[in-house]
Structures are given as structure tokens and as C-alpha cells.
Amino acid sequence: MICPSPFKFHFEVAQMSLRAANLIAAGANSLSGTPLSFRSPSMSRVSASADALTTVPLATKGASFIRKHLQTLAPYTPIEPFEILSARLGRHPKDIVKLDANENPYGPPPEVLEALGSMEFPNIYPDPESRRLRAALAEDTGIGAEHILVGCGADELIDLIMRCTLDPGDKILDCPPTFTMYAFDAAVNGASVIKVPRLPGFALDVPSIVDTVRQQNPKIVFLTSPNNPDGCLVSDDELKTILDLPVLVVLDEAYVEFAREPSRINWVTNYENLIVLRTFSKRAGLAGLRVGYGAFPLSLIEYLWRAKQPYNVSVAAEVAACAALTNPKYLEDVKNALVEERERMFVKLKEFSFLEPYPSHANFILCSVTGNKTARELKAALAKDGVMVRHYEKAELQNYIRISVGKPEQTDAVLAALAKLQC
Ligand SMILES: Cc1ncc(COP(=O)(O)O)c(C=O)c1O
């Protein structure tokens, strides 16, 4: 006869109590219509224990276990998922002109779907060192594979760099308006952010960056070239001046392929304090598969290898990125089409009296909204026509919209929707 083990018995009792508690909690939840996770910490909730169902203040539960600096963290506001957006707008995804997240509307080369369809070992964990992809990237970029580390998007690498370099209380410096993940990840890693705002027209305020680094001693300066959301470049001279400071410089080149200037990825062999980040999300149309990469000085990269999650790049992501690199002509053609479309859209946007577009070196155009509608109202009006753009109403970017560059027919749809708002 097989006896149930005492552990198994206790486990099952606990599970039964937990299920009961969940049912009660779900009932309470559906009555109030408030998801539990959105309740304020002062509310109480039903808790399960093996011997009783009791009500305990939430303050002694989940929130009390969270690290102090995370208790006040503002959540990152991501773009709405495509299917949810489609349901909300009551439009088929094909009828949505999605120009709000700088995605590549052409998608990846056809080789990518073929390779994903014939993936050999999805049941086996991926190569922790992404060797095939790093070898292909070495060919593509001209920098040795030993300098390259691949991540689950450039986003993962921003966080990994901070996890490896920042002690609680350390500072980073960024230059708003810019990509908000730098400030978000700094907050998650217990660091504070020194902001050196850009000059009118969005150029970097280099003298102010130099002074601030000298006086406040941040550990990392984040630079973005082209910058998101305006598309400005960092010049060689600006970069060299900042690299001469005693600070680690992370140069984010997520959009560099759309600029006429070359990448600085090879500079990491000359500067011990430079990291360059790039991604497959924009150039290769693989935002959904999450593959980014960084080039690092050898003295730094070994620590990132030690700290990264072993299987951070999935088999599918590596297969897709390798396949994308086998068709450089497709990547080049798509880039050229988007750059050409950017120039056409820029000229057309200038014709609207309520928009002031800024010249961009990336796959998006930032516009100041100057008419009687606010940027938020303009975004909402465009959404009614199925055209999605990003709007900004922050201190450093008050009343702006950012429109990603799409296919010519998508530009036409934006222009038609804007024309309706002209009068
Ligand atoms: C400047 C910048 N860096 C990095 C990223 C994130 O890239 P990835 O999709 O590889 O995480 C973005 C995404 O929009 C970006 O704008």
C-alpha cells in the first residue's frame, strides 16, 4: 500500500484553503469590479492559511515585502498591445495605421519566417552565449564577437548594465527629452537621475553635461543617437568631449541605421568607458521577438557575462536574428524606403498650420502642436480614424506628437486624417 506522505497531505490542505481563498477573493473582486492588484495598500484582503481564513491588512502582506525604493516606483507606461488596441478601436489590426512605437512596418526578411518555421530544437535551452548570432554580428558590424553580448532587446541590456555598475544611491545622467527607460531602470536599480535638459532644437547641452559630471559625479551618462523622440544626432566632437570625462558612457544607437552617419560601435575598442547598444527591433523589424546587442570594452564585458540570465535570448530570437542578417539587401532596401518616406512625410507635415515638425535622422518625426487642439486631443482625433501616434505632455516636452515613419500608404492615411483637422 502506498501511504500519502505527511508533506503531500499538508500541501493539499494548503492548496484547498488557497483555492477557497482565491474563490472568495475573486467573488469580492467581481462584486467591486476592482482588480485586486489595483487596490490601495490600506485595503484589506482575504488571506489563506492552512488552518483558517482570516482578514489581514495588506500592509503586512505583499507591499511590505517590496524593497523600499520600489514602493513608490511609477510603473512604465507601455504601448497598448495590438490585439487590445484593435478591440478597443473596433478595427481589424490591418485597418490600424500603427505609428506610435517606431516599429518597422515592413517586418523582417522572408528568411526569418522560413527559419522560424523549420526551427530544429525549440525543446532545448538556447546557447547562453548566442555564439551563432555573435559571429554573424561580428561580420555585420566589423567588431570582434568577443566584444558583443546579446540581450532580450536593448532594453534588457540597459537594465543589465545598471545592475552591474550601480550601487544603491549612485547617479546616472540623461538628457531629456529622451528614451524614458534610462530613468525607469535607474529607479528600479535604486539610482537617482540627474537630468541635463537639451537645448532648444534638442541639441545636447555639452558644457552643462561636462560641469554636471565634474560636480555631481554620476556613474553613467546615457546618450542616444539618433535621439528618441526628436531624431537628433550626437556629433563625434560631442561624444569625444563626454568620453574624456571620468564616467561610463552608454551610447544608444537603436535607430542609427536610419541616419546617414556611421555607427560608433567600433569605438569601444579605443574607449574603456564606452558601451554602444543596438537592436534588431527597428532595422530588422523584429521588435516582437526581442533581440538587441551591445558592444563593450573587454575589461567590462566579462562582468556582464557573469551577471546576465543564462538563457536571456530565446532559440526563436537567435534563429530570427541570424536569418535576418542573411539578407542584407532586404534590410538595406527597407531602410532606404523608410528614409525616403521620412523625407516625404516631413515636407508634407510642414504644410499643416498646426504642426511644426523637427528634422529627424531616425524612423519617426517629432512635431510641436501649435493649433487650438492639444497634442492629446490631436492624438485622440487621429485615433478615431485608426491612426495611432504618440503624444507628449511633460515638462520638457509640452504639447508634441511623434509619428513613426511607415509605408507610403500609411503616410497618406496620416495626412488624410490630419487634413480633416486643418480647418
Ligand atoms: C532609444 C531606444 N533605445 C532602445 C529601445 C529598445 O530597443 P529594444 O526593442 O531592442 O529593446 C528603444 C525602443 O523604442 C529606443 O527608442
Topology:
Elements: H1 6-32, E1 44-48, E2 53-57, H2 62-65, H3 68-71, H4 82-89, E3 97-98, H5 110-117, H6 131-141, E4 148-151, H7 153-165, E5 171-174, H8 181-188, E6 192-195, H9 206-216, E7 220-224, H10 236-243, E8 248-252, E9 274-279, E10 292-295, H11 298-307, H12 315-325, H13 328-349, E11 355-357, E12 364-369, H14 375-384, E13 387-388, E14 390-394, E15 397-404, H15 408-420
Parallel strand pairs: 3-13, 5-6, 5-7, 7-8, 8-9
Antiparallel strand pairs: 1-2, 4-10, 9-10, 11-12, 12-15, 14-15
Helix pairs in contact: 5-12, 6-12, 7-8
The structure holds pyridoxal-5'-phosphate.
In short:
By secondary structure, the protein is α/β, with parallel strands linked by helices.
Strand content: 15-25%
Using the coordinates shown, work out and report the CATH topology of the largest domain.
Aspartate Aminotransferase, domain 2
Main sheet: strands, sense, barrel: 7 strands, mixed
Number of helices: 15
Low-confidence stretches: 1-53
Name the overall outline. Answer: globular
Looking at CATH, the homologous superfamily of the largest domain is Type I PLP-dependent aspartate aminotransferase-like (Major domain)
Let me know the number of strands: 15
- CATH A-level architecture of the largest domain: 3-Layer(aba) Sandwich
- Work out the helicity level: 25-40%
